[in-house]
Amino acid sequence: MAPSLFSRMRWQIARSLLALGTAVLATAAQAGEVKIAVAANFTNAAKEIGVLFARASGHRALFSFGSTGQLYTQITQGAPYDVFLAADRNRPKRAIAEGHAVKGSRFTYAAGRIALFSMDKSLARGSASLEHGRFAKIAIANPVTAPYGAAAVETMKALGVFGRLRPRIVQGNNIAQTYQFVESGAAEVGFVALSQIARHEKGSRWIVPASLHAAIRQDAVLLERGRRNEAALGFIGFLKGEQARAVKEKYGYGAGE
């Protein structure tokens, strides 16, 4: 007896669902994830780049943000990161030298800038703001672990005001916490990353001339854990591309290599 029309339709639907399920499973099998340790100054840019990377590749980028020094300590202690985006060149070099990262994978992904920032529209108006010192607290990132904090100290020394301002300094663990100190009013002024204030016009700001401190060249490196991770390799390639470059420029970063 020939199968009924209803039976044939039911069989065709079942075949279609099976094909769809197979396609979904194949896509899921191809998708991967990459765990990335990211210097805090690059938080906003990294999040945008991560979204674009996911759209382009199907892979997920999972970020952990912190100071470069803190993240490097985690890496040396076996934290499961695939890629390291530092705020300096030294730690990625050390990661390769000490066997934590892949030789030949290091490159400069961004050049950072610092700015003196205040929520008060009159407090951060140039080097004179530091010389006059009309504030009780000035925030900087920890100069030992955060290159942006080291650049802040260099700037104050270059202007001859570090000794006078040193008792007023409050330190953030990283540049993200430093910005929070200023935004909340815990410190009236602070040295923050230009990227943190590039997308708003709050308060007042002075973009520090690059001549007052060593260049903040930020290097990335592929960690040994990510050597065979297609998502990690794909993210590094994407970070060098035009879409990522546009995001970096939007946040005030200079071009990398």
Question: Can you offer a commentary on this structure?
Answer:
The chain contains eleven helices and eleven strands. It is an alpha/beta fold and 257 residues long. The chain has two domains: 31-111 and 216-255, Periplasmic binding protein-like II (D-Maltodextrin-Binding Protein, domain 2); 114-207, D-Maltodextrin-Binding Protein, domain 2. Strand 1, helix 2 and strand 2 (60-66) form a beta-alpha-beta unit. Helix 2 crosses helix 10 (230-239) and helix 2 runs antiparallel to helix 11.
Helices and strands in order, then pairings?
Elements: H1 5-30, E1 33-39, H2 43-57, E2 60-66, H3 68-76, E3 83-85, H4 90-97, E4 107-112, E5 114-118, H5 127-132, E6 138-141, H6 147-158, H7 162-165, E7 169-172, H8 175-184, E8 189-193, H9 194-197, E9 204-207, E10 216-222, H10 230-239, H11 242-250, E11 254-255
Parallel strand pairs: 1-2, 1-3, 6-7, 6-8
Antiparallel strand pairs: 3-10, 4-10, 4-11, 5-8, 5-9
Helix pairs in contact: 2-10, 2-11
